[in-house]
Amino acid sequence: MKPKELKIQVNGRALAGLEFGAQDAPVTIFAAHGWLDNAASFALLAPRLDGVRFIALDLPGHGRSDWRARGDWYAIWDYVLDLHAALDELQLDSVHLLGHSLGAGILSMLAAIEPHRVKSLVMLEGLGPLVQAPAEAREQMLRAVEWRRQPSKAPSVYRELERMVRARTFGRFPVGAAAAELLVSRGVESVEDGYRWSHDPRLLAPSVARMTELEVRSFFEQIVQPVLVCLADGGIATPVSRKRLEWLARLTLTEIKGGHHPHMEEVTLDAVVDSIAGFYRTIGIDSYREKAELCD
Question: Residues in domain AB hydrolase-1 (predicted)?
Answer without folding.
Answer: 32-266
